[in-house]
Amino acid sequence: MLRFDNLTLGYDRHPALHHLHGHVAPGSLLAVVGPNGGGKSTLLKGILGQLKPLTGKVVCGVPRQAIGYLPQQSRIDRSFPISVQETVAMGLWRHCGLFGRLPRAQRLRVAAALERVGLERLAGANLDALSGGQLQRALFARLWLQESQLMLLDEPFSAIDNQTAEDLLDLLEEWQAQGKTVLAVLHDLEQVRHHFPEALLLARECIAWGPTQTVLSADNLNRVRTLHAGPDPEAAFCSRTPE
Ligand SMILES: Nc1ncnc2c1ncn2[C@@H]1O[C@H](COP(=O)(O)OP(=O)(O)OP(=O)(O)O)[C@@H](O)[C@H]1O
């Protein structure tokens, strides 16, 4: 589904993530973990094509515009006057366009998605009237309707209650069981150990990638702690020889 060939990503030619190699098989449920500034969101931007590689490339099994993407909640504009139902219906824009009345079949799909995430009673509420957990449920419902084969989620469970996190984790596992590929940036390592079979540990480079229990070993986590995370503003353009 995804392949990284000697991928280096950065800003103003300063690398934030160096020389990543590897592939994500279709149907993977992969947690991307690591310290603040380790390059996790940068990797998602590289996959989405929002950031051009400094070296190497990302090979993606689906067209970029067909990737399902859930940004960090802090990047969502809630002040826009739009209802929960309308927000969720945007997941169908590829089929119906962004404006205009939805046909009955699509309205039923929106209602089913709202019910699946437990928001049917809030369908008419404005987005800014939702709690953090309710907003995340609405965004998962929108993602669900997109029916993408590849989904990228950036810190989907930060600052939300445990019950919502558990419900939404069930949904991720359901998507994986349907053969979809899911990459999620996460900070809660216990959540990763319990729900994610594979993990990618990043600290400006790949520290480990594979089965979660192996990746999250004490040795690997200690190694990450001793590494400096974040780009060095004094660093020259990356000149490391590809492995
Ligand atoms: N638009 C940008 N311009 C310049 N530098 C950036 C930009 N976005 C991110 N960076 C830097 O790149 C590095 C990697 O950032 P990134 O957001 O990928 O980290 P992260 O692992 O997702 O961190 P966190 O867990 O804190 O969200 C950070 O040091 C950050 O300051």
Please outline the helices and strands.
Blueprint: E1 2-11, E2 14-24, E3 29-33, H1 40-48, E4 55-60, E5 68-70, H2 84-89, H3 93-96, H4 104-116, H5 132-146, E6 150-154, H6 162-177, E7 181-185, H7 189-195, E8 198-202, E9 206-211, H8 212-215, H9 218-226
Parallel strand pairs: 3-7, 3-8, 5-6, 6-7
Antiparallel strand pairs: 1-2, 1-4, 8-9
The structure holds adenosine-5'-triphosphate.
Residues 11, 16, 34, 36-42, 230-231 line the site of adenosine-5'-triphosphate.
Mean pLDDT: 89
Beta-strand percentage range: 15-25%
- Number of E-state strands: 9
Class from secondary-structure proportions:
alpha/beta
CATH topology of the largest domain: Rossmann fold
CATH superfamily (homologous) name of the largest domain:
P-loop containing nucleotide triphosphate hydrolases
Helix content: 25-40%
Trace the largest sheet across and list its strands.
5-6-7-3-8-9
- Which term fits the overall shape? globular
Report the order of strands and helices.
EEEHEEHHHHEHEHEEHH
Separation of the first and last Cα atoms: 22 Å
Overall CATH architecture of the largest domain: 3-Layer(aba) Sandwich
Spans with pLDDT under 50 lasting ≥5 residues? Answer: none
Protein name: ABC transporter ATP-binding protein
GO molecular function: ATP binding
Family: Belongs to the ABC transporter superfamily.
Keywords: ATP-binding, Nucleotide-binding, Transport
